[in-house]
């Protein structure tokens, strides 16, 4: 069980839950393979929504600290297991965390009919209207990422109402959808002519291109093409035996 006395009033609600569980793991409260508090217990103990608890557990899973089994529960990770993971981060938080300034330039924000290939990716019918945003993210005035994103309106009906100069699509979708899983593909490739222009780079500059699709339990949420100039971005990880 979780004691309400363990609540910390500082920080976002999900970070308090996450830190509480990390502290417990570090102190040996839950041995490897042990069943940890359920989502319902954490909701009751911290007075937050299930979505908030789910985010804390997702991030702990991405860090390799817990294992989650649908319909069973959350378990402390076995220490001998090693995995490589990708975490969905909010670019604004990453940039601000470095002590730098984040700026977003919104080049497109509208609903438009989905061609057949895109419709299949988003789980809608060809010709159905989907949400489309095209945003360039800058760090201290330098373009860092071109984000071309399509969203399933059924998953996030208020998506286009957001002011993406003040928030990010990632933050909006974290807060308004129940993210269940994600698919990634990563490659080194040249940008399109439009992407090169928006990023202020040459069309022959190698870029890191990430295509990411996310889902609720029931349906796709979004598909995004994230293009980063190769000289301005790196993938990093950490391993601790």
Question: If you had to describe this structure to a student in words, what would you say it looks like?
Answer:
Helix 1 packs across helix 3 (50-62). Helices cover 27% and strands 29% of the residues. With 241 residues, it is an alpha+beta fold. It folds into two domains: 4-76, Arc Repressor Mutant, subunit A (Orthogonal Bundle), CATH 1.10.10.10; 97-232, Chorismate lyase, CATH 3.40.1410.10. Strand 7 and strand 8 (220-229) form a beta hairpin. It has seven helices and eight strands.
Task: Chart the SSEs and their pairings.
Blueprint (H helix, E strand, L loop, with lengths): L12 H14 L12 H8 L3 H13 L3 E4 L3 E4 L14 H7 L4 E12 L2 H7 L6 E11 L2 E10 L17 H8 L4 E9 L3 H7 L7 E9 L4 E10 L12
Antiparallel strand pairs: 1-2, 3-4, 4-5, 5-8, 6-7, 7-8
Helix pairs in contact: 1-3, 2-3
Characteristic key phrases:
241 residues; Chorismate lyase; 29% strand; Arc Repressor Mutant, subunit A; two-stranded antiparallel ribbon; globular; 8 strands; 2 domains; six-stranded antiparallel β-sheet; alpha+beta
In short:
The chain is of the alpha+beta class.
CATH fold-level assignment of the largest domain: Chorismate lyase
Fourth CATH level, the homologous superfamily of the largest domain: Chorismate lyase-like
Walk across the major sheet and give the strand order.
3-4-5-8-7-6
User: What form results from the Cα inertia axes?
Assistant: globular
Could you give a short account of the major beta sheet?
A: 6 strands, antiparallel
- Helix and strand pattern: HHHEEHEHEEHEHEE
Rg, nearest Å:
19 Å
In round numbers, the mean pLDDT is: 87
Amino-to-carboxy terminus distance: 28 Å
Fraction of helical residues: 25-40%
The total beta strand count reads 8
Oligomer: single chain
| Count of individual helical segments | 7
- Under CATH at level 1, the class of the largest domain stands as Alpha Beta
Q: List low-confidence stretches.
A: 4-9, 80-85
Q: What is the structural class?
A: alpha+beta
Number of domains: 2
- Identify the CATH architecture of the largest domain: 3-Layer(aba) Sandwich
Strand content: 25-35%
